[in-house]
Amino acid sequence: MKSKVLFSQGEHRWVMFARDPLKPEKIIDTNQYMIVNRQQAILLDPGGIEIFSSMLSSVVKEVPIEHIKYLFASHQDPDIISSLGLWDKALPSATLYSPWLWEGFIRHFGMDSITFSPIKDEGGTLSLAGDDIEFIPAHYMHSSGNFSVYDGKAKILMSGDIGAALDAPDAPLFVEDFEQHIPKMEYFHRRWMPSNAAKKVWIERVRRLDIDMICPQHGGIFKGEDVTRFLDWLDDLDVGIAVS
What we know:
Blueprint: E1 2-9, E2 12-18, E3 32-37, E4 40-44, H1 52-59, E5 68-72, H2 78-81, H3 84-90, E6 95-99, H4 103-106, E7 115-119, E8 124-128, E9 131-137, E10 147-151, E11 156-160, H5 178-192, H6 196-207, E12 213-216, E13 222-223, H7 225-236
Parallel strand pairs: 4-5, 5-6, 6-7, 11-12
Antiparallel strand pairs: 1-2, 2-3, 3-4, 8-9, 9-10, 10-11, 12-13
């Protein structure tokens, strides 16, 4: 699995884990992220059970395992959090932040030791060794209980399935040509995002943030001017096509 440092300033870092060559062929490729601040770290959408061993070996090369105090699951999909039962053994004192709506579902993946901290619909914050990480509501994008994560210090938004694209295993980690990237993500957004109204609410929230990178759970990262290009493109896109 590839590891890429996206941001580093003093003791504050963002690390991406992706493009696992050992994952089963028919398992969709996913991006996992870790925020490190001083002696604490949080794993964002830590992935499915199939990639747990690759994730664990990659993560411990970046931080001591005892520094991982928190997990975050943007919603209940298995590619995001079905590894929970294994993290529960590796991180018995950790806390999982996730939408309150999905606690009863997420517990099916196994959670005997990790503490579940429900995120209210309006969102909230987590102090990671003194720096706030924000949980931004992203409901119905595509899950009815869903959050993005914003780090104002790094100016990074982890958007989950928003911005997701089906990229080739050897594709660049960053979007290099936005127009060529559109076909990789258009159908997914038109089919899996059910509500134009919810889409516009999320875009309005996100436009108020100072963002250098949007990091989705699948495919390339948007940076610089492509952040605005993506938001403009999504704003104009008609979604919920299964009922049209």
